Write a sequence for this structure.
């Protein structure tokens, strides 16, 4: 919800005038690039952990298990808690920093929060690129996580507030498109850096994170602030002029008045975190918790983190595993473009549900294909080419289903459904839940792969079924609803309140 409870809109659907102006298009594209740092990190970590020189230097036990011990079950060759800590520590740091980012975003503006994110990510990239010990890798990952927490908290809010409401979905998904581009670029860089003679290519991959960090730093310095943020900080005249500029029309009084009313309501809220638990926000709270929870338990980030590791585990050679990750990364980008085209045309619910069905079917087929060939012992030297193609094909189908549904919508919907008075705190909660579950899944994925084998896909498929039913019964359609007038969608929502009540009391207690 993004309209304050104090704004009376009755049963009339508000339609604010406005156009897609070059100014707002360029602004949103530049802001959306904040997703590059998140995407780059998702793709880069799995790539370097499959590189033998990296493993030999920092994780020699894993290197020996992978290359020297022929008795090792393929499902278990990467099973190392220290190795997974290298990946997962970032997301724990991101969870913590997103809570601080809430205060910065609300009191000092969205731009400053983006700037902090870029600077912290830049520092983490430098530490990782010059690492000599495992502890340096983890410290660098923690700084990267601090940067991601700030960026992921502020960028979706910025995009939702800047975009015209009719096209808010498409503009907001620009963030997820940027994430997928970051994943693809990092996969390509991993593929080529692995070929560098001398075994130092992993340093190029890790330090390459400086590029997206510099992009978001520059962007945060040149981007304009949102009208919502200007009003929050008392600069109403500048906010109205800014609103006229980004909407491309002079008649912005109705939207501006609603923004001011929402801001005045938010000023009366002294404790936004405590207010999240109020009865009127109960439905929204369930969305802020369960959407990111289900997004991570779809299994996608475990696959994207460890794509090269996973492909290597099921019999692909190093170069082939890295190239397979490039292919899935490319599919990810293309499918996200489908979501940009359709989210404001077909609606959020339709994409959520279709994507869930597609993911369940492809996960079941991948589980069957791997189970038939590897069984539970995982002992197989080579995977036939045609069989490898089938596995990669259905993983791509799975990735595409996620990329036009739960991937972008998992960030879009929570960023647009909250009123201004709790929006920053609620987005921090959303990011925190996302990062915590992300940390948990990435930390246990390789252990689960070792113990559940091909059944790991069935495990994630179960959650996809649950989350698809959840969306079908619980989520109202928010397509085409002005961000400051969305309260009517939730006020008219009178179903499934028992579930809201139960979750609310679990959180409160």
């Amino acid at each position: 919800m993004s309209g304050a409870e104090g704004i009376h809109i009755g049963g009339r659907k508000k339609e604010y005038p406005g156009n897609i102006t070059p100014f707002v298009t360029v602004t949103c594209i530049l802001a959306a690039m904040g997703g590059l740092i998140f995407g780059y990190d998702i793709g880069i970590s799995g790539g370097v952990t499959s590189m033998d020189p990296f493993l030999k230097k920092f994780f020699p036990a894993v290197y020996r298990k992978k290359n020297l011990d022929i008795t090792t079950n393929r499902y278990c060759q990467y099973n190392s808690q220290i190795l997974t800590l290298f990946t997962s520590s970032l997301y724990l740091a991101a969870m913590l920093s997103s809570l601080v980012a809430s205060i910065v975003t609300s009191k000092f503006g969205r731009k400053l929060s983006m700037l902090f994110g870029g600077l912290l990510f830049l520092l983490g990239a430098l530490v990782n690129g010059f690492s000599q010990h495992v502890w340096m890798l983890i410290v660098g990952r923690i700084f990267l996580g601090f940067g991601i927490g700030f960026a992921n908290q502020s960028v979706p809010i910025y995009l939702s507030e800047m975009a015209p409401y009719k096209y808010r979905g498409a503009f907001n998904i620009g963030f997820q498109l940027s994430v997928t581009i970051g994943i693809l670029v990092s996969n390509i860089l991993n593929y080529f850096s692995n070929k560098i003679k001398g075994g130092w290519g992993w340093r190029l991959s890790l330090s390459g994170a400086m590029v997206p960090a510099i992009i978001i730093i520059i962007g945060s310095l040149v981007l304009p602030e949102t009208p919502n943020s200007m009003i929050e900080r008392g600069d109403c005249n500048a906010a109205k002029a800014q609103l006229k500029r980004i909407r491309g029309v002079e008649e912005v009084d109705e939207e501006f008045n609603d923004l001011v009313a929402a801001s005045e309501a938010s000023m009366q809220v002294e404790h936004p975190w405590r207010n999240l638990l109020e009865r009127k926000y109960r439905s929204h709270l369930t969305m802020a918790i369960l959407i990111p929870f289900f997004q991570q338990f779809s299994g996608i980030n475990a696959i994207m983190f460890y794509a090269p590791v996973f492909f290597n585990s099921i019999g692909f050679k190093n170069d082939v595993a890295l190239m397979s990750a490039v292919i899935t990364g490319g599919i990810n980008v293309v499918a996200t473009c489908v979501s940009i085209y359709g989210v404001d045309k077909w609606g959020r619910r339709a994409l959520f549900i279709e994507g869930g069905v597609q993911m369940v079917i492809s996960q079941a087929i991948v589980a069957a294909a791997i189970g038939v060939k590897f069984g539970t012992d995982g002992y197989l030297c080579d995977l036939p080419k045609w069989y490898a193609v089938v596995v990669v094909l259905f993983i791509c189908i799975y990735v595409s289903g996620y990329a036009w549904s739960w991937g972008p919508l998992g960030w879009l919907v929570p960023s647009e459904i909250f009123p201004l008075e709790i929006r920053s705190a609620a987005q921090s909660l959303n990011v925190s839940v996302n990062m915590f579950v992300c940390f948990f899944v990435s930390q246990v994925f390789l252990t689960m792969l070792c113990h559940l084998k091909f059944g790991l896909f069935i495990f994630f498929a179960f959650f996809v079924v649950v989350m698809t039913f959840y969306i079908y019964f619980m989520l109202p359609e928010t397509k085409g609803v002005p961000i400051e007038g969305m309260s009517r969608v939730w006020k008219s929502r009178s179903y499934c309140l028992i579930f809201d009540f139960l979750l609310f009391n679990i959180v409160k207690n």
